[in-house]
Here is the input.
Amino acid sequence: MDNRPIGIFDSGVGGLTVMREVMEQLPYENIIYLGDTARIPYGSKSEQTIKKYAHQCSAFLKSKNVKTIVVACNTASSVALDQLTENFDIPVIGVIEPGARSASEVTQTGRIGVIGTTATINSYAYQGKIMEYLSTAEVIGIPCPLFVPIVEEGWEYSQVAVLTAEKYLTELIEHDVDALVLGCTHYPILRHTIKRVLGPGVILVNPAFETAKDLKKLLTEKDLLNENYEKPIYEYYATDAPERLRRIGGNFLKKEIDNLHEIAIDNL
Here is the structure.
């Protein structure tokens, strides 16, 4: 039995969709979540800066005696994961590989869409990783920057969301993709609207779900599961505006966020 917490970090609140999947698939695990809200977004920063931020977030979680670290940020996963794996003596996993692998497995036609922030799509991280698993794939990446503010306003079921999705996803419909990677941690909140626009023939791949599945497998293989079947403890930290994390994050988790603390960047 290992009752040390799982550490999860993201540049903001989006990583809470990953935390929600971890909570559902590993219901007895203690979790510490860090949202680096003072420095969001990571996507517009240089590679060197992203690596620095990711290292600082991971070091903070390590100081809390976590047994594994989940990089619940697409940008940090694409840029800093290898460095974090080398620098920390506990398992570190990201969100890109699980999502890319799943997309390559579920597609029947090899035509796969990826939607994400402009930075994630331009990094070619998902596209490249999918091609590693399925070299014959045709991968179409579409940046959907307005999806994040729509989700954070709580408008995921609105006509605004539907019209925006129709505008962004037209190219994917024209390419007749049969699988779509939700390549931003905010996007699973929009899955019903996206599914409505694309139709039933397209399988939506949620990297948050796939990452939680990989995490469960990892903890099982390394004998790190918490087998103390008591109510888990969830802690939340934000580097700025914790009340914003509480407000938006509550919608992501579908539960009230308590045990929330502000942590100064200087202390990371």
Notes: The domain at 97-207 is CATH 3.40.50.1860 (Rossmann fold).
